[in-house]
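Quick start: what a row looks like.
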Amino acid sequence: MRAADWCLSSAGAALVLATSSDEQHPAESVADGSSETFWTTTGMFPQEFIIGFPKCVKISKVAIQCYLVRTLRIERSISKDPVGFELCIEKDLQHTEGQLQTEEFPLPDFQATYLRFIIKSAFDHFVSVHRVMAEGTAENT
């Protein structure tokens, strides 16, 4: 079975929650597949967003393109609802002046119905998240 990016809205992913809202830079931008659009936080940390998949998927790699994020935590849930999250990875990212931070997290194959991205701290008062990706295959259900 061919691996797909399950964080794309075109693949059926849905933004379930975002802790900040900006009309010009909505949280749905993280799932549109473009690095040109982005979600921006409105200050204060932590900030988070949750992406729900159309079905349970087996994920092998998660990636993010962002700017000014210092500490990122990624959690997953296999519940029918966005509850019962467990830690996948937490990492301090390198500051890249004037360019996007691109981080890939190879993960042992694990199942997920939701991913929660928590920005615990930042290099500035605001951050932007341009794109998230979750490479994997659909589980046989």
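That is the whole record. The radius of gyration is 14 Å. The longest strand covers residues 101-122.
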